[in-house]
Amino acid sequence: MDERSESMDEGAGNGEGCTEGACCAQGVGEGAPPTALRRDEAGDLRIDAGFCLQFLRDVRDVAFATVDEDGLPAVRVVDVMMVDEGRLYFVASRGKAFYDQVMRTRFVAIVGQTSDFRTCRLRGPVEHPDDPAEQRRLVDRVFELNPSMAELYPGDARYVLEAFFVEHGQGEYFDLGRYPLLRASFTLGGEPVERDGFVVGAGCIGCGTCVDACPQGCIVLGEDGRARIVQEHCLRCGRCREVCPAGAVEAR
Ligand code: SF4
Ligand code: SF4
């Protein structure tokens, strides 16, 4: 299953949505601005976490994945209600399975996609302010920023909702609408960088088989005669590993 399929949600929404969100994905800007991108010490492309949080807020209706009480995956569409001081906020009503799952596992995986196949995903621990006064303040703030919520939860009904936020985690930005694709990772709140994908090891004999096989054209032969994967354009499909006659392509 490729990233486009992974990022598809189950559709129906959980009722914490907004009636103004359906068109929001069309309005997210045209791509990651160069100012949001940089290279880390390993040469990998990184993207500003704040840009990605705002991207998810602009998409608004995004898929939130959790784990249910049987240990099975569960997913639904939930609104990103606000982004503030490096935190991504969402709400859930106390009667929903989503609320129970978040309270039990305190962890979510989030993904949002625009109609032109730009995607941000984020996974990390969830914080839940326990103070009732703080909960009311946050719910009121959410309703200020998302006026259509008052139609779903008029009057004091809003206080059946509770606010949660994510301020630590790992994520990635993808632009799958261009060729070759662009990908850049980010860290929210200072967690260590997780690296995935493939690298070419010392066993490379420079035959070029992987260069021809790569669907994104993102393998180059260096002056040392060895292949190198340009990580920011890599699909992580693994074809290079399958075709390499020397077994030189390794997961990292
Ligand atoms: S995993 Fe290998 S074959 Fe697939 S896109 Fe990346 S470099 Fe190319
Ligand atoms: S197929 Fe394997 S040995 Fe050949 S260039 Fe690619 S990594 Fe090197």
Verbal overview:
It is a single chain. By secondary structure, the protein is α+β, with helices and mostly antiparallel strands. The protein folds into two domains: 186 residues, Electron Transport, Fmn-binding Protein, Chain A (Pnp Oxidase, Chain A, Roll), CATH 2.30.110; 54 residues, Alpha-Beta Plaits. The protein has eight helices and 15 strands. A six-stranded antiparallel sheet has the order 4-3-7-8-10-11, with helices on one face. Strands 5-6-9 form a three-stranded antiparallel sheet, with helices on both faces. Strands 1-2 form a two-stranded antiparallel sheet. The protein starts with a helix and ends with a strand. The structure holds iron/sulfur cluster (2 copies). The site of one iron/sulfur cluster has 13 residues, from helix 7.
